[in-house]
Amino acid sequence: MTEVPPGGVPARRIAGARPHPGEPPGRAARPGGSLAFGADYNPEQWSPEVWREDLRLMGEAGVTMVTVAVFSWALLEPAPGRYDFEWLAAVLDGLHEAGIAVDLATGTASPPPWFSRAHPETLPVTEDGARLWPGGRQAWCPSSPVYRRAATALASALARRFGDHPALVLWHVGNEYGCHNAHCYCDTSAAAFRAWLRARYGDLDALNDAWGTAFWSQRYGDWEEVLPPRAAPAFRNPTQRLDFRRFSCDELLDCYRAERDALRAITPDVPITTNFMVQQFARNVDYWRWAGEVDIVTNDHYMHAADPDAHIELAFSADVVRGLAGGAPWLLMEHATSAVNWQPRNLAKRPGELLRNSLAHVARGSDGAMFFQWRASRAGAEKYHSALVPHAGTDTKVWRDVVKLGTALQRLAPVAGSRVVADVALVFDWESWWTVEADARPSVDVGYLDQVHALYRALWRAGVTVDVVPPEADLRERRVVVVPALHMVSDDAAARVHDVVAAGGSALITFLSGIVDPNDHIRLGGYPGAFRDLLGVRVEEFFPLPAGRTVRLDDGATASVWTELLHLRGAQAVACYRDGPLPGVPAITRNTFGDGTGWYVATRLDDDGTQRLVELVLAQAGVSPAMAVPRGVEVVRRVGDDAVYVFVINHTDAAVEVPARGMELLRDVPLDDALTVPAGEVAVIREPGGRGGDGR
Ligand code: GAL
User: Fold this and answer.
1) Catalytic residue among 259, 334, 353, 687
2) For position 72, what pLDDT does the model report?
3) How far apart are CA 471 and CA 454, in angstroms?
4) Residue ranges per structural domain of the chain
5) Taking the chain, what is the end-to-end CA distance rounded to the nearest angstrom?
6) Cβ < 6 A, ligand 1 pocket
7) What does the pLDDT read at residue 33?
8) Nearest CA to ligand 1 atom 11
9) Class assignment of domain 424-621?
10) pLDDT on residue 13
């Protein structure tokens, strides 16, 4: 095992070339740590003359690390068992000479055409039985032992060949597990699913009970009758579907583990990661199950051009990733310098947006900013995706922004290793995401992320920093815990929320929370099941609203999507419906429980109403923003050993003046009173203090 803090790798190890006996350390390995800056580097798409140009430009931009060989399997193993690593050795040698560290991929995300031809049974199958063909990427079944053997063999061969290479600082296993092949319904998967279920339930009676198979004549009498939830004439069993999601996530994880363990056996001191996909459209992998399996948590994040609040979604995703890292620094492995190529309309980034996006990730705990990809491809499905070196070359806005970012990250080197300080915890749960959005539910208008994002946006606008935590997290130290749509909740997780409130904290819980147990069975006796007593309410019936219909509350807010026939059982009404199907019925309540307060929101408040409520809850709990700034200015603090780093990101069209003393690191100016951050710009203030000082 590498000696690393859980979920983290010392920044020095990943940000610069690994010091090699007898050789000077790479540029980024200087004392004090540094932030990683670089990209996926795909030299196989270019000639060696271009490689030389690449190295020169990487030096010009201040690149410290690149990820190599992510999609190189077909070149690394051109025929079964015949490896050709010489081109890669030349690439790694060149990078090392240039002082650039390598995050070396195992290349196993996409098998070569010969592999799919020789082993067609490894191709994934959709829920309606269609086999997916090669020709794109990730065309493999996560349960295929043939795929796993071949992938692990390649990873081992790479480790034997390059394990001692001085440029190697990090292993990058596969790529975005489950991006395209999260669920496979083939016969191999069916057998693996049954094995997984046997391990989970032991016997068929337990499975029948958990899946509620007394319903619709679904009782199983023999394990061979149990199948993946393939396309069926009517709604499929919801617990079967849930278990299939859990199983699929575990199968991918086993693929990762197989390669990781093979690498670790050969290079025990090289840290290992795989890039997660925490962003708004990626719900197939429950990363709470993965977080402890990597030596450093890394993430890929892309902006959704159609989302007017994409910068807030970025902040949320980054906070989730920090939660996965247990609060330790993590690494942004991919984002884009400008447009992507896979949305309906791929908008270029606006002036300043690249720097704002990159530094927003750094503000929230990333020890660097990496991209997809170094040089924009001239061929292939991603030729219209932005890169650090655009098609038009270096006399471009993108290249100038890249060089500027490289300089900024060098100046921010002291930030490496520091930790974000947060005021509030938000409980986030992939299983609730899956089950809130399952078939046959009360209203298709209820979206899990919609509710999570609505509350998060209000917290972001209120200027408080949020730690995103799993349902089973210990919440005792928290003053405010936000629980949006925690539909599926275990007794243990529910107890944690009760504990924090009983001890004097506040919990803000939204509708559809506490409704089902981990088998997706309703908690009987009235909603919101697990939180009824804590909230002092009892809901007897859901009253979802017709599409587009709004209702008014007596506090002036409007709401949509959802209402409930709610009775007070000790709670006070904070606001009631003025109209709609339930006039006079409470929509927002508060309840004293132990020494604390349980707040309940039984409807989907509009943005203003959500904002008012969140600010009321924060004020009553005594939580105030990190700094009083106009709305749209993002302030996040990272606390180091001997300094506090205050990131001020101005997303507005107007300059803002903030109180500041210490140093502004990006502009290298001393401050003794205040700083003006121009519209659209970022400032990072180094204040005296820190963990060893008085900065907390
Ligand atoms: C990621 C992927 C990269 C590239 C990028 C484009 O999902 O890991 O290989 O495809 O998206 O945005």
Assistant:
1) 334
2) 98
3) 19
4) 14-181+260-416, 187-227, 424-621, 633-688
5) 33
6) 175-176, 179, 300, 302, 334, 340, 372, 382, 385
7) 76
8) 372
9) alpha beta
10) 44
